Amino acid sequence: MGRYGRLARMRQMDPQRDFEQIYRWITQYEFPRDYLHGTSVAFLRDYGVPRISRLLDRTQEFERAGQKRYDDTVLIAYEMVRHGTDSEHGRAAARHLNRIHGRYRIANEDFLYVLATTVVGPKRWIDRFGWRPLCAQETESLALVGRRMGEMMGIAQVPSTYAEFERLHDDYERETFAYDPANRRVAAATLRIMAAWYPAPLRRIAVRASLAVLDEPLLTALGFRPQPAWVRGVVHRALRLRAAYIRLLPARPERFPRGPEPRTYPFGWTLDDLGPHWAQSRPLEPLGDEKATGAGPAEAGRSDEPREQEPPDEKPPDTAPPRPSPVRAPRKETP
C-alpha cells in the first residue's frame, strides 16, 4: 500500500456507515502518535475549567496514581471502540464508564465539553503537526465516534457533526476558562507525569516543549506564563520536521496496528483493571437503549447511594465487562 493508499480509500467511504473503520485507521495506522498527543492536550484543556480541576485536585488522583489515571483514560476509549461501540465488549466498557461517573452528579454541559475536547483536540493537533491534515471523511468520523460515545454515556444534546463539536468546545471555553489554584496544581501534576516518560536530563525540556504548544488562553487559565518566542519556534519547527520525516515513511501494514502502550500495564490489562478501585463495588446500570428493551446486565440497577454534585471525575470514553480476557500489550510503533 502506498503512503496515501488509505487516504484514497477513505475518500471513497461513507462516514455515516464506516466511521468506526475510519476511526481505527486514524488512531492505529495513520496518526497513532499524533492522536495521543492531541488527546494529551485535551486533558490539559479540561483543567482550564475550575469546577473540573477542583474535583480532580480534591481526589488527588494525579498525585497518588497519575500515570494509571492517564493510562486508564486512554485505554477506556480504546476498549470501547476496539470491537465496535455496539459490540458486547464496547457496551460493557460504556456501562463501566457510566458506573464510574455515576458516583457524581455531573452537569450535562460539563460532560459535553469534556467529550468535545476528545474530538476537537486530536483533529487540531493532527492538522497542525501531523504528516498530513485530516480529510473530510476522517474529521466527520471523529465526530461520529464521539457522538456514539456520548449517546452510550447518556449525555443529552450531543453534537452530530464536527462543526457542532468545535462550536460547543470554543463557546464553552470562552465562558468558563478562568484561573484557579486547583487548575495549576492538577496541570503541574499531569506535566510531571508526561515529563517522567523521558530520561531525567530531558524532563525540564519536555515540560517546556509541552507548554510551548499550548495557546495563551489555556496557559492563563492554568496559571503558566507563555514560553519565549524562540522556544515556541524551535518546538514548532521540530514537530514539523518530524511530520516531514514521517511523510517519507511507508504506510503502516495492516497486520501491525499501533495500539496504546500503557506504562501502568506492561504485561497487558483487562477491562476490570481500568478505573478507580472503588468502581468495581458499584452496581452496573443498563445503557439507555437497554433500559428501553429491558436488556442489560442482571446486576444493573440504580444505586441508592447519594451522588455528589461535581464535574466529571473521568474523561469520556469507556471501561469494563464482567469477566474480560487479558489484552496483550500492543506492538511498538515505528517512527
Automatic annotation (TrEMBL):
InterPro entries in the record: MPAB (IPR046366), MPAB/Lcp_cat_dom (IPR018713)
Keyword Thylakoid: no
Regions of compositional bias (Pro residues) in chain numbering: 318-327
Region of interest: Disordered: 278-335
Domain of life: Bacteria
Keywords for the protein's UniProt record, in alphabetical order: Oxidoreductase
Molecular function via GO: oxidoreductase activity
EC id: 1.-.-.-
Presence of keyword Repressor: no
Domain ER-bound oxygenase mpaB/mpaB'/Rubber oxygenase catalytic span(s) in chain numbering: 61-236
Compositional bias segments (type: Basic and acidic residues): 301-317
Protein's recorded name: Oxygenase MpaB family protein
Native organism: Streptomyces cellulosae
